[in-house]
Amino acid sequence: MSIAACLDDVPHPGEFVREEIEAREWSQRDLAYILGVPEQAVGLILSGKRGISPEMAKALGKAFDVSADYFANLQQAFEMSNARAPDPAVERRARLQSAYPIREMIKRGWLTDTNIGLLEQQVMRFFCRNDLDAVPHLAHAAKKADYRETSPVQLAWLFRVRQIAAEMPTVGYSASKLRAMVADLPRYMRDPEEIRHIPRLLSECGVRFVIVETLPKANIDGACFWLDNKSPVVGMTVRHDRIDNFWFVLRHELEHVLNGDGRGELDGGQVDVDLEASGSRDDLPPAEKRANDAAQDACVPADEMESFYIRKYPYIAEKDVVGFAGRVGRHPGIVVGQLQRRMNRYDWLARHKVKIRQFLIGASVVDGWGSVAPASL
Q1: Secondary structure (H, E, C), 188-238
Q2: Are 13 and 52 in contact (CB under 8 A)?
Q3: What is the architecture of the domain spanning 7-82?
Q4: Shortest CA distance to 196 belongs to which of 126, 243, 143?
Q5: In Å, how far are 38, 113, 126, 131, 306 from 121, measured between CA atoms?
Q6: For the segment 92-137, what is each residue's pLDDT rounded down to a tens digit?
Q7: Which of 13, 119, 161, 167 makes a 20 to 30 Å CA pair with 226?
Q8: For the chain, which residues make up each domain, given as ranges?
């Protein structure tokens, strides 16, 4: 096969070099002398056995008084024409990864790393659809940084919560039981260890409670959605591992459940704003304002907090906070969290905001931090 008979009829650059030296009536030895290289090196290029390096392209450009890019582009065109076609799976994997956090989902054990055909089937089963382009925005009420749109990463997290919740056994949902349980929450807010009772209490009310570690850049603290009109789910990430954040997020989501927010696929759900960044914003949807107010009042009764703040600010001593927390029956870290937000001083008495994830992991259905919750595609 001649060097010109290449794929797509793109000849080897040596063919053009040969034409140049013939036009000048040079010999192969003449060109080698001009270039200052062994004659054999020129012969390998002319025979198509060696490509033109960037250095050789520059040298040939000087020898023939043309641009070095001319020979460099000839070499590139030849190499591209002879390059093997990529595995079709490359494009399909890129499509998946562009839409969803596939690599992270595999790492977390949500999907199995396998051939592209089986991987695509897994993704469709994960999102409960037969077409990758038909993955819906699940009706939900998710507390996250931007409530205007559910990103693919957030959607993947929500579907993982849904996948796990769908396999959890529970009793029928009772709004009256949940209201009674919510009213009784303060008794569990004194001691961080008491948090371990929450998953059981919610299950007794018919609420599926799932903890799924957040995905990178998802910025979700929690979500409320419904498997059907009688099956509420509360999912949390506990990405802010602090006692004040846990109780605020939990009560926020339970308010969504009690109000029926996010119920029904046609509803579209209520999306919650990241409370760390925008809990005091005035442009939130009404459902979010109601949930924020309920959560804040549960953490520290609003009238009690207002009275304490007026009397003590700006000279609030640590002993005053501890005493006030004891009087209202809350852990000091919960009171500190509320005061920090009011004062915009998030380092103030921060040591009281103890970690609580450890008390949840043994008592809840947890997916993340090295553990994969049992759920089938």
Answers
A1: HCCCHHHHHHHHHHHHHCCCEEEEECCCCCCCEEEEEEECCCCCEEEEECC
A2: yes
A3: Orthogonal Bundle (1.10)
A4: 243
A5: 58, 12, 9, 9, 55
A6: 898 888 888 999 999 999 999 999 999 999 998 999 888 887 765 4
A7: 119
A8: 7-82, 88-125, 138-367
